[in-house]
Amino acid sequence: MNYAAEYQQKKISAAQAADMIHSGDWVDYGWATGTPYAIDKALAVRAEELTDVKLRGGILVRPLEVFKGEDPGRHFTWHSFHSSGIERKYVSQGFGYYVPLRYSEVPRMYRENVAPADLAILVTGPMDEFGYFSFGLNCSHLAAICERAKKIIIEVNENMPRSLGGFENTVHISQIDYVVEGENEPIPEMAGAPAGEVDQKVAELIVPEIPDGACLQLGIGGMPNAVGAMIAASDLKDLGIHTEMYVDAFVDMSLAGRITGTRKNFDQGRQTFAFAAGTKKMYDFIHNNPEIMAAPVNYVNDVRNISRLDNFISINNAVDIDLFGQINAESAGTKHISGAGGQLDFVMGAYLSKGGKSFICCSSTFKNKDGQLKSRIRPTLTEGSIVTDTRANTHWVVTEYGKVNLKGLATWQRAEALISVAHPDFRDELIREAEKIGIWRKSNRK
Questions:
Q1: Quick check: 249 and 270 in contact, CB under 8 A?
Q2: What is the 3-state secondary structure of the chain?
Q3: pLDDT of res. 165
Q4: Given this model, what pLDDT does residue 443 score?
Q5: Residues of the chain with pLDDT under 70
Q6: Strand-by-strand arrangement of the 402-405 sheet
Q7: What pLDDT sits at residue 152?
Q8: Is 330 a catalytic residue?
Q9: Which of 163, 158, 221 is nearest to 187 (CA)?
Q10: Using one digit for the tens of pLDDT, what is the confidence trace for 233-258?
Q11: Distance between CA 426 and CA 376 in Å, rounded?
């Protein structure tokens, strides 16, 4: 088979690809750093001709061109499986919506539940000599998209790193309908927030809980960055990686010699991930690296797989926590912030792991828009807030004031434990509220 000839036969321009989209269509727009660029720009030119085009994707790392015109919601609607700050704005502006789910479910949802895409537009690296295009940083659920989409267009970006498998990390020229050679723009970078003083204090509490040979999952943000930097500077050894999102902290740990993966119960010696977003340093590290294993999210985030990895350590963030141990990582009341992602999967999987621990981390306080200091540990979650992890699933909670293990604790014990890691200025108020709702014993604080 002459794959190069087939490639040439299927090659079209970005404008020709955009012309295939019609009013009312469902269009899959890839994922994170794999969101189309050239075709998005071409589609924006056609905006006035279209209505009710429904786009799907998630974790946007740059604003979409189609939403930069006047009254964009009349032409396009964004449907997100997990939200970045960009998507949060789309939701607040009325043309973006979140699809509630556990991220691990997305491949099955494509195969069984969601409307098949009229057109799937996916960014990949260049075709190899065997006719395969690598999904690069975004294995995630793209193979499932391809299984059901009515038409598939590949937008090639030569800067997309080639991630090795794994499985379901490529698509073959024979499976696709058209190829667009993109503009080869740099892959967007998503630098995590720098670690602050609170992040450092939280990291200092978590790192001693990590044994040699542990397998790690980190979220994104200052706290995971602080944990990663501290691990890189530690004498921990033979750590493994099995993570939904690959972040820069793993590169730092790898280059410091902390990661070998030799003690993983499966995928030994491989750093397994579903998608990646970070800096160019990380993208260069991933490219053609046999140590890195790109796999679909229903494999990576499967609670059963996570639980098979001994000493699994899961580290994630929260917006706020109530005295019952309910974790909200998605909203401020009814105001949308993010999504469930894989947090619950990793919280449950880590606890089921032999020697595993799940850590939910947050600063003890935040300042509201009026500059008032508020506690992240609350008597009950704000009305309308989303419960990401139920009280039955919460394991460790960590703030800059300490760490507490909630497993096995009665409601009054949980309240006492959580108040002990709240900011001191709010503890008496929390005690009064705990008394009102019947979860404070008179014997507490004796």
A1: no
A2: CCHHHHHHHHEECHHHHHHCCCCCCEEECCCHHHCCCHHHHHHHHCHHHCCCEEEEECCCCCCCHHHCCCCHHHCEEEEECCCCHHHHHHHHCCCEEECCCCHHHHHHHHHHCCCCCCEEEEEECCECCCCEEECCCCCCCHHHHHHHCCCEEEEECCCCCCCCECCCCEEEHHHCCEEEECCCCCCCCCCCCCCCHHHHHHHHHHHHHCCCCCEEEECCCHHHHHHHHHHHCCCCCCEEEEEEEECHHHHHHHHCCCECCCCCCCCCCCEEEEEECCCHHHHHHHCCCCCEEECCHHHHCCHHHHHCCCCEEEEEECCEEECCCCEECCEECCEECCCCCCHHHHHHHHHHCCCCEEEEECCCEEECCCCCEEECEECCCCCCCCCCECCCCCCEEEECCEEEECCCCCHHHHHHHHHHCCCHHHHHHHHHHHHHCCCCCCCCCC
A3: 84
A4: 63
A5: 443-446
A6: 292-294, 271-276, 240-246, 215-218, 312-317, 357-361, 396-399, 402-405
A7: 98
A8: no
A9: 158
A10: 999 999 999 999 999 999 999 999 99
A11: 10
To the question of pTM greater than 0.90 for the whole model, the response is yes
Cβ(273)–Cβ(292) under 8 Å? Answer: yes
- Is residue 183 within 8 Å of residue 39, measured between CB atoms? no
**244, 330, 400, 433: the active-site residue:** 244
CA angle 149, 29, 388 (to 5 degrees): 100
Q: Which two tokens stand for residue 50?
A: 């279209």
